[in-house]
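Whiteboard transcription, Tuesday session. T.W. wrote the structure tokens on the left side:
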């Protein structure tokens, strides 16, 4: 993972957490020094992220990124193509959620923004450790996707729609 990918991953981690994330936790997770994390936070601030450093860690107050929820339907065989499409166009797959008729909303954070993240996720599913949430709703699921601009989100929507992954009803 290069520095740019790491900063994107750090921003996504901070955006997905409800509480402050300590710098040493980020350093360990991204296998870099605490000083590198401090430099990455400075770079993110320069890019417009409103990040607050507290005694408990870092908190993002406001993000300059755009977000959109996509309603999707496809088979497990298409998951890799779906994720690669989103990431290759500049998106981050923030989460996945389904609306189950009995259990209600079931959600999992993903924060997939690189090919490495895609492979790690797919390895977990293919190894039999788990199954995809969409399997309990006949392939229907939602992804919150984050990107630098609405234009990127529009491009992602168009690409997913051309592949037949966008579910009807949006």
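and on the right, the sequence the group agreed on:
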């Amino acid at each position: 993972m290069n520095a740019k990918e790491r900063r994107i991953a750090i921003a996504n981690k901070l955006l997905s957490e409800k509480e402050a994330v300590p710098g040493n936790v980020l350093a360990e997770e991204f296998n870099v020094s605490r000083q590198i994390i401090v430099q990455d936070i400075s770079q993110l601030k320069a890019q417009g992220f409103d990040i607050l450093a507290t005694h408990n860690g870092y908190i993002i107050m406001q993000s300059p990124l755009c977000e959109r929820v996509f309603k999707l339907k496809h088979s497990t065989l298409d998951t890799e193509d779906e994720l690669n499409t989103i990431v290759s166009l500049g998106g981050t797959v923030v989460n996945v959620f389904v609306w189950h008729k009995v259990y209600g909303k079931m959600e999992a954070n993903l924060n997939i923004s690189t090919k490495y993240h895609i492979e790690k996720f797919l390895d977990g599913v293919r190894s039999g450790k788990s199954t995809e949430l969409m399997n309990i709703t006949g392939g229907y699921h939602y992804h919150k996707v984050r990107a630098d601009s609405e234009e990127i989100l529009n491009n992602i929507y168009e690409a997913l729609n051309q592949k037949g992954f966008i579910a009807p009803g949006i």
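Someone added at the bottom: The CA atoms of residues 74 and 139 lie 5 Å apart.
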